[in-house]
Amino acid sequence: MINKLIKKVFKRPKSHSSVKATVIGASSHHIDKSHISQCALSVIKQLQEAGHQAYIVGGAVRDLLLQQTPKDFDVATNATPEQVKRIIRRSRIIGRRFQIVHVQCGHEIVEVSTFRAKASLDSQHQQTDEHGRLTRDNVFGTLEEDAERRDFTINALFYDPQKNEVLDYFNGVKHLKQKHITMIGDPTQRYREDPVRMLRAARFCAKLNFTLDASCKTPIEELNELLLNVPESRLFDELLKILLSGHALRSLEQLSALHLGNYLIPSLENSLDKEQGAIFIKQALTNTDLRIKEDMGVSPSFLMATLLWPKLQERWQHHLHLGEKNLPALFAAMHDVLTEQDEVLMIPKRFEGTMKEIWGLQPRFEQRSGQRPFKLLQHPRFRAGYDFLLLRAQSGEIDNALGQWWTEFQASPEKREDMLIKTDKPQSRKRRKSKA
Ligand code: ATP
Ligand code: MG
Fold this sequence. Notes:
Blueprint: H1 2-9, E1 22-24, H2 38-49, E2 54-57, H3 59-65, E3 74-77, H4 81-87, E4 91-94, E5 100-105, E6 108-114, E7 127-128, E8 134-136, H5 143-148, E9 157-160, E10 165-168, H6 172-178, E11 180-181, H7 187-193, H8 196-208, E12 211-212, H9 214-223, H10 232-243, H11 248-257, H12 268-273, H13 275-293, H14 300-321, H15 326-344, H16 349-361, H17 372-378, H18 382-394, H19 400-411, H20 416-419, H21 425-435
Parallel strand pairs: 3-6, 11-12
Antiparallel strand pairs: 1-10, 2-3, 2-9, 4-5, 5-6, 7-8, 9-10
């Protein structure tokens, strides 16, 4: 009975023999070979010369067809990881569950993976949990099977640079032209196999400015809870991909619209709804997207600190209303917010430490007398804290004058002493003494 039910829910995928590629020759696509990495070209050439199939796959083909320069290159081949390692110099096998090969060319790494087969309940190699999530899918397959196990039609394109042809199994090229994202196979089943595909759908819509097909949108409402069942490290990786994609703002808006946002950051949808919080977060994400476009570094801790700031302020106010002093109230609020966050998605401790420092520095920027501003300048997180302060000023949360004061204080060492705000300094000493 249960077996029957399971079989009904997870219909066996179409046999690979029914999957056929449309070959798109040089005259029908406009791939500019100068956009292709020499490293990827050389890897493919060597694999093909050794008698294997090898293609550029995934996002790189998508980007090439859209006349964009891909940021990285993935290669798919029928050679096993060991065979790839033997054929290609400077290559190493990585990963335990599913091995892939990294080929290093200077700073660039080309990822080579062996064709994999799609989920099948009948296979001995694949297993699902009680929600239908694949927990093992480490089985090699054919080129057709590899196309079929990919998520969206626009992601199942294979490019052979030697022949200058694209193999298109599921009308991906047509969907690219239509700016349309649609799943290979039954979306509900594919989301069940891997709920992260829901997040990926939102990410690609945002990145490419494409529309998600209704068939892929509708099931999300019912299935979004499956994200609770995904290993946190994977969710965090996906969150980082989103934040560092260069389209973080649009992605988070998409995620919120699809009611997926709160599975990554529990207060996100609420924060994006509230005026002040929304302005702050949007300003932060706009700055981040700009920095990425200009190839400037972005700190994930800083970003996480911004995303949780509206909620943190709410909790801070709450503790102040309970009569707690400013700093203890702030630290209590940090604890609340991070506990709530960790229940949904644990932020790695190394990031949490920096986030707390950035938040903890904020009240210190208000102290502009005596030695304190000088000490603050020496703080290892001063720069991040200051950037955070500017963001608060930029979004109208605090007076611009405070940010400007700190900008000038850093820039003009000769003016520092004069800039200090005169207060009754001995008083604070006395207070400390009387405490001792
Ligand atoms: P990006 O440009 O953002 O890197 P991408 O399409 O290359 O986009 P990756 O996460 O690098 O995305 O994955 C590479 C390819 O692997 C995808 O294009 C897709 O074919 C396949 N893939 C990745 N994740 C999944 C998944 N969860 N389910 C099915 N296929 C996937
Ligand atoms: Mg990629």
